[in-house]
Design goal:
mainly alpha, about 70% helix
Length: about 450
């Protein structure tokens, strides 16, 4: 255990902006890319991560103070503070068995590739902490390490299937072939698809409601930077920011919405030669199979529909947090609800109206699930990470993959209702994957 921990901690210490270029370099050598293309792709993948993270961090830096003031001005006290993924990942990394998830994730991925049950190679090693997190929670509630690790392993499989289904939409967003995003937050795609299946039956909702469609209907007011300026200014004003400061925040938010797609396009520059080499490599050695590289979520950051829906729903998120009975979480670090809206954008193909409806529908269970997890997360934080929490104070986060996590954790806590949640999730995943494959066969037949 100590050897595994030392090896994988050394890898993690490299940071994604260093580790991912190394992974691309190694894969490029295996696929016999030209040296200039290997160096080009490796460096640009690191540059892309830095560029996107700089803009996203700036976005949160700009919006966090007025949003927190907006929430505080309501006067209602909620006892569980949303500390975001950074704090919760620290808790997960403090669990002594988390390093078992590295070989388990790699082993499952290699096995499914070998038996042709997936074409996704997930190289996103950082987010193994998500599997470690739910494994730690299940272990803490049930007392069974095997059960906890098994749930984490099931999550690894679900991620790969989600990565397969969303690949065409990821390609539309980042413009690169043969890449996808088997990220934990996108586990929510499956239940969202089940709801969106019915929303698509409503003709009005099935029209072209992405940015290009809105431009025909709203003109200048459909432009991402205009929407960002208006909403940023209004939220700042409601939060008590003076008018000049509110206008500045509006302009800063508009700038983020302009810069994000440009920063995300660097991924296309990085991955274009790599994708071509991967496709040629697989076509030669495995005829009839496609090879898809699974990367972290920043490759989605170029979607303006994502950020527009996130910004529009911020006041709704705060309002529901204050109004929903049983909710104790004050959304702070996750107040932009990107983990909730990323799957909505993928499932709807960027249909902003259906994204907003899905966002509102899933916000309520998301709040209640995050509230329920406040107890287990706080217990883990005190036991493993050495947190000292004041009496009556809890920590939580706006969870990624909330329905998957809740089903297994609730069952581990001795509630048979958890089985129904698990069955619902796995059923929606099966429905999602089956329908996607049917659509692919229909397109191929045409």
């Amino acid at each position: 255990m100590q050897v595994l921990q030392t090896i994988f901690q050394a890898i993690l210490d490299l940071d994604a902006t260093v580790f991912m270029p190394i992974i691309i370099l190694i894969l490029g050598l295996i696929m016999r890319m030209k040296w200039k293309d290997i160096i080009h792709s490796s460096l640009y993948i690191g540059i892309a991560f830095i560029a996107v993270n700089m803009v996203v961090n700036y976005l949160y830096e700009v919006m966090s103070p007025p949003l927190q003031a907006f929430a505080e001005n309501t006067g209602k006290q909620l006892t569980a503070i949303d500390l975001g993924w950074t704090a919760v990942s620290t808790v997960a990394w403090s669990w002594p068995y988390i390093f078992l998830m590295f070989p388990i994730q790699i082993g499952i991925n290699m096995l499914l590739l070998a038996i042709k049950k997936t074409d996704v190679l997930n190289v996103d090693m950082w987010n193994v902490w998500q599997k470690g997190f739910i494994a730690a929670v299940v272990y803490g509630l049930s007392g069974s390490l095997i059960f906890g690790i098994a749930v984490g392993a099931i999550g690894c499989v679900c991620e790969l299937y989600i990565g397969e289904v969303i690949q065409p939409e990821i390609k539309k967003i980042c413009g690169a072939d043969n890449v996808t995003c088997p990220h934990w937050c996108l586990l929510l795609c499956a239940p969202m698809y089940a709801v969106d299946f019915f929303l698509r039956k409503i003709p009005f909702l099935n029209k072209n409601w992405d940015l290009s469609g809105l431009k025909e209907k709203l003109g200048i007011f459909s432009e991402a930077h205009i929407i960002g300026f208006i909403i940023g200014t209004i939220v700042a004003l409601v939060g008590g920011t003076p008018i000049t400061g509110s206008i500045l925040i509006g302009i800063q938010l508009a700038a983020c919405l302009v810069l994000l797609p440009r920063a995300a396009k660097i991924f296309m520059t990085a991955l274009a030669p790599f994708s071509e080499a991967a496709e040629a490599f697989m076509r030669k050695r495995f005829p009839g199979r496609d090879f898809i590289i699974g990367l972290d979520w920043p490759i989605m950051a170029g979607s303006q529909e994502l950020w527009i829906t996130c910004i529009i729903l911020v006041p709704v998120f705060i309002g529901l947090a204050l109004a929903v009975p049983g909710n104790i979480m004050m959304p702070l670090a996750g107040i932009m609800c990107a983990t909730l809206m990323s799957p909505a954008v993928l499932v709807t193909g960027g249909n902003i109206l259906r994204c907003l409806i899905l966002g509102v529908i899933f916000m309520v269970p998301n709040l209640l699930i995050s509230s329920w997890f406040a107890g287990p997360i706080s217990d883990l934080a005190v036991k493993y990470a050495g947190y000292e929490l004041p009496a009556g104070q809890l920590i939580t986060r706006n969870l990624e993959g909330p329905i998957f996590d809740f089903g297994w954790a609730y069952f581990a806590d001795g509630h048979l209702l958890g089985i129904l949640v698990i069955v619902f999730y796995l059923g929606s995943l099966f429905f999602y994957v089956r329908n996607y494959r049917k659509e692919c066969k229909a397109v191929t037949a045409e």
